Each structure stands twice: as C-alpha cells, then as structure tokens.
Amino acid sequence: MRTFFRSVWDEPRPPAAPVRVWRDWVLVAVLVPTAVLEGVLRPGLPLRALSVVVTVGLVATLLWRRTRPLLMVVVAFVVLGLLMVLTAAAIPQMYTGAYVLLLPYALLRWGSGREAVIGSAVLFLKTGLSALVVVTRPSNVVLGAAVLVSAMALGAAFRFRAGARVRQLDQVRLLERERLARELHDTVAHHVSAIAIRAQAGLATSASRPDAAVEALRVIEAEASRTLTQMRSVVRVLRRSEPADVAPSPCIADLKRLAGRDGTGPPVDVEVSGDLADVPPSVGAAIYRLVQESVTNARRHARHATRIEVRVAADGSSVRLRVSDDGDTGLLRPAGSPGYGLIGMIERAHLLGGTCEAGPEPGRGWTVTAVLPRAGTA
C-alpha cells in the first residue's frame, strides 16, 4: 500500500497540456453574461451583488485550470469556503457557479500526483465544512459529494485513456523500429559475407595474380564502407529522435505486384514516373511499404470504392507518393486521430527524414501522401 501511495504521489503531469484553446474563451464569454443575467433576473437570490461578483470573478480560474490546476482549485474553493463562513451560510448559490466542477476535473486530468492529492484534500475539506456550516439534509450533502467525486473520476478516466493511447502509439513506433533493425541486420550480414568472400578470393589469388588481390581489396573497401553506413543506421533506428537510412529488400519496381484486382476489392492502378535509377534501397523499400499499407487500408475501409490510384514520382531531390481512392468517408475512417497503421507509416517516413499524411478528400475518397528525400535522409 505504501508503494502505491508513493507511486501516486510521484506521478508526473501529463505531457503537452494545452495552455488555452478557443473553447476556453468561448466558455468565459458565455459564463460571464450568463452569471450577470442570472443575478439580475433570478428572484430570491441571497446576497445578490456578492453572488454575481464572486461567480464572475472565479470564471478566470478556468483559463489556468490546465497549467495551474492545484492553484485554481485552492483559489476557487477556499474563496467559496471563506464566504460560506463569513456570511453565516448565506453563501452565493448561483446555478452558473456549477462551472467550478471543471476545476476538480482538470486537477485529476492535468495535475501531478502530489497536486491531485493536495487538491483532493482541499476539495473534501470544503465539502466537510459545507456539511457542518450549512443547515441541509444529509442527502444533499451526499449528492454534492457524489457530483464532486464524479467530476474527479471523469478527469482521472480521461487521463488514463490518454496515457494508454500514448503507450500504444509508442509500442507501434518501437515495433516499427524493431522490424527495421531486423532488416538492417540482414543487409549488414549480406555486406559482411561479401567482404569475407572477397578476402578469401584475394588470399587465394594473391600469389599468382596480384592484380586480382588489389581488385579484391577495392571491393572489400567499398563493401566495408557500405557496412559502416548500415551499422550507423542501426544506431539511428534504435534512437528515438534521429532518421535512419534503412535498406530492406522491397523496391519501387515491386509496386507492379500490387496492381490489378485482389479478390473483391477495387482494382489498383500503379503509375511510376521520373528517374528512379539511383534511388537508395532504403527509399525504395519505404515507398513500397507505404503503398502496401495504404492499399491494404483502402481495400479494407474504402466503402463503395471503384478504384485505387498509386502515383510515384521522383525528381532531383525527393520521391513523392500519392495513394487515393474514391470510397465513402464515414465513421470507419475518422480523420481526427490517426490509427496505429498510419502511425507506423508516419514513423517509417520520419526515419528517412520525410513526411507522411493521410485524410479525406473534400467530396469523397481518401488520400495518403508522402515525401521522402531522395538521398534517404533529410
């Protein structure tokens, strides 16, 4: 149990908490006039002027609820608790003030572990103080506590959900890197085998044909240089922030195998243009795999599609890819958060210093575009 509480206390804040978004300003713009309007029109409101001033003043805490969740909870609930005591329980009871429930939600969603523990203590102290000072039925106290706990539980649930998705995306990226590392192993092994064979041939012919030995040394030097490049690529693949020059087996010429019709899916039309003669194997393999994944996704999700078009074009600096279909864009193909297949495609393109994007067309259809540097790294 002590270990559990220690882990909760040491829990860091979730990364990339938004400071303010347009919805925050809309919320403030709606709440302020609503509170004033309620103060003017609501009959029997106790301490009318004070109620409106406090409710409007505490709206500002919503603007810092993500970046300073503990401070905003302390400010709002300590102010409400002091007013409750100083006014002898004639506290402002405005319906608009329900927005303060966003603060305990934000505390559990965006606060660190120690902030959540301290803030929760403040919240429950305020709830207990309300039960002692305000003359009300126990059922109302229980209901208020239940609403507070529900807001906090909702924040914790969204925090866990976001953390789970981040862990899943990291797993996808790590699996992609692991696959690339295995492919690199095969490539490096091929080069090392060539070096060994050439060295043996050079030793066998050195006595009778010195020129053959010199030629073997030249080949060994070239193979060793390529091997060192691939070994450096292994290191870059295993690092999380650097691109890599990966040389697995498929190439752009293999795209013709994806053309035509596969079962009941729409036909695939492949068109390759530009000078692709000296494109590195890493780029060719990445283009092939990006097309393969895009075509698979289109056949799986493009409802009522009649065609899938694959266009690959190369110029002096980059290789561009475009895969599009004319299927319906609906609930099965959301454009908001990318799926794990797309995350793997983006990661593969990033390893080569390129970009990959996917999304629906304005009318119908779905398009995947990718741009990779021709040299294999940016």
Would you write up a description of this structure?
The chain is an alpha+beta fold and 378 residues long. It folds into three domains: 2-135, no CATH class; 168-238; 252-373, Heat Shock Protein 90, CATH 3.30.565.10. The chain is built from ten helices and five strands; from the N terminus they run H-H-H-H-H-H-H-H-E-H-E-E-H-E-E. It has helices at residues 2-9, 22-41, 48-57, 69-86, 102-110, 113-133, 138-205, 210-238, 281-301, 340-351; strands at residues 268-273, 308-314, 318-325, 355-360, 366-373. It has a five-stranded mixed beta sheet. The longest helix is centred in the middle third of the chain and has 68 residues, at 138-205. The protein is elongated.
Main attributes?
3 domains, Heat Shock Protein 90, five-stranded mixed beta sheet, alpha+beta, 378 residues
Summarize the structure.
Helix content is 57%, strand content 9%. By secondary structure, it is of the alpha+beta class. Helix 4 packs antiparallel against helix 5, helix 7 packs antiparallel against helix 8 (210-238) and helix 7 (138-205) crosses helix 10.
Topology diagram in text:
Layout: H1 2-9, H2 22-41, H3 48-57, H4 69-86, H5 102-110, H6 113-133, H7 138-205, H8 210-238, E1 268-273, H9 281-301, E2 308-314, E3 318-325, H10 340-351, E4 355-360, E5 366-373
Parallel strand pairs: 1-2
Antiparallel strand pairs: 2-3, 3-5, 4-5
Helix pairs in contact: 2-3, 4-5, 4-6, 5-7, 6-7, 7-8, 7-10, 9-10
